Amino acid sequence: MNAAVETWISYVREDLEVARHAVSVGWLKPACFHAQQCGEKWLKALLTYHGQPSPRSHDLDYLADLLEPFANNVAVIQEATLVLTEYAVSSRYPNRLEIDVDEATQAVIYAQQVQEWAEAHLVNSVD
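The structure corresponding to this sequence follows.
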């Protein structure tokens, strides 16, 4: 694995830990934002791994679509990518409706699903 991919992964692991911690202390909007960041950075890590540019986009569904030529079964993370995309902006500003603990917990679960899917594709890819 190259250094650029490893850098993405180091950032993504921090985002997931921040999201988990944020839920545990009741910081629900930051939890959702960091869950979204986890998913986004995993997808960008995979794009980088496959020699593709990582566009300046927070739309996880779009990023996942870009991975279709390189990764199988992108559809299994579609629900996660659609939900997490919402948190890229809306969770950072006061105009978003309240987020409850169940929603924040689900966002972390979605981030973990994207992570597991992405890790499996790194493991199953040939360098």
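The chain has one domain: 3-124.
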